[in-house]
Write a structure and sequence with these properties.
This protein is globular. The strands form 2 sheets. Strands 3-4-5-6 form a 4-stranded mixed beta sheet, with helices on both faces. It has a two-stranded antiparallel ribbon with strand order 1-2. The protein has a single domain, classed as Endonuclease, Chain A (3-Layer(aba) Sandwich), CATH 3.40.960. By secondary structure, it is α+β, with helices and mostly antiparallel strands. It is built from 5 helices and 6 strands. It starts with a strand and ends in a 5-residue tail after the last helix.
Amino acid sequence: MQYKNRKPGILHNNELTGYSQKLRKEMTKEERHLWYDFLKSLPYTIKRQETIGQYIIDFYCSKAKLAIELDGSQHYERTGKSSDEVRDHRLDALGIKVLRYSNLDINRNFRGVCEDILNQIELRIIDRISSGGED
């Protein structure tokens, strides 16, 4: 795999770039809803389908080092859960916190999900600034 350091500790995988672009064009209904009806209008830069190491993150806020993942039914099967745990652990080792929401959460509690995301972004930014960890 070809990795390029854009920022210290965060690796961009050039081999996944084409696939991440495809995923941006083919977002799920829930991803489109979260992006167009909330994340896109935040005063923070949020990237869609961001490549970090060997992973493509649904939504990523680099200022907060926060990944937002929307989980469909495959994430609740044994192999999906196991893969998600490994992925979350590896991202955590890079200082990235992962928030996971089910598609059902988006469809039934959109406002609550949005409030939680905004609170988490702001808390992470405050924590990073106060600890001197802001890039």
